[in-house]
Structures are given as structure tokens and as C-alpha cells.
Design brief:
By secondary structure, the chain is of the alpha+beta class. The protein is built from three helices and three strands, in the order H-H-E-E-E-H. The chain has a three-stranded antiparallel beta sheet. It is extended and about 50 Å long.
Length: about 120
């Protein structure tokens, strides 16, 4: 079953829990263009961090080359929420489809040049 933009948004932005500092205002309406709705395949993500942010560099690697698709900076608090929701989604996936078999990375990136 394909992931709809609404369900992807809900996964990353669950409804506020009781006893939070969030206001009771209406939820923010997120707009997305048709261009952004298109999915892009990624099989490699590099993550770095500084005191104020985490940087996710999302790539598609098909040897002998690869391409950086996007670089995204997120706050440390959002990185922690992402970690939690990703763990919950992996658990749900494994409950439905079986344990995900961990495999070695099928390519050697060596030193990644920044060109």
C-alpha cells in the first residue's frame, strides 16, 4: 500500500500528547506541490551533527557513481523525534511483514568527494 502524503505527515508529526506546552490551535495546513509529491529512491544517508543541528545528506548510489538528492538540517530535538518515529515504524513493519534482515552495504564509498 503506497504511503500517502497525509500519512507521512502524520508519522512525523503525531497529534500533541496531553500535558505538552503546545497550544490548542488548529493544526498547521501543509501545502505540497505536485513536483514534491514525486518519490525519489535513496539507498544511502550520511548524518553529521553540530551543537545546533543534525545534517542528513540523502543520496542515491548506483556504482560506479552516486548523486546527492538532498541535504536537510534539523534541530537536535527533531532528530530525537525522528529517531523515535522511525523505530516505531520499523517495529510496525516487522510486525506486519517479518524481521528486516540486516545486510552489509553493497558498495564501498571510500572518501566521499565534495564536488
Amino acid at each position: 500500500m503506497p504511503l500517502t502524503p497525509l500519512s507521512a505527515f502524520q508519522c512525523l508529526n503525531p497529534p500533541p500528547q496531553k500535558n505538552t506546552n503546545m497550544s490548542n490551535e488548529n493544526p498547521i495546513q501543509i501545502k505540497i506541490t505536485d513536483e514534491k509529491l514525486a518519490l525519489v529512491y535513496s539507498n544511502h544517508i550520511r548524518i553529521g551533527h553540530a551543537p545546533e543541528e543534525f545534517v542528513l545528506e540523502i543520496s542515491s548510489v548506483f556504482p560506479p557513481s552516486g548523486t546527492v538528492i538532498s541535504r536537510v538540517a534539523i534541530s537536535p530535538a527533531h532528530a530525537k523525534r525522528l529517531l523515535k518515529v522511525l523505530a516505531e515504524n520499523v517495529q510496525g513493519y516487522e510486525e506486519k511483514f517479518g524481521v528486516i534482515k540486516e545486510m552489509p552495504i553493497p558498495f564501498n564509498l571510500g572518501d566521499v568527494n565534495q564536488k
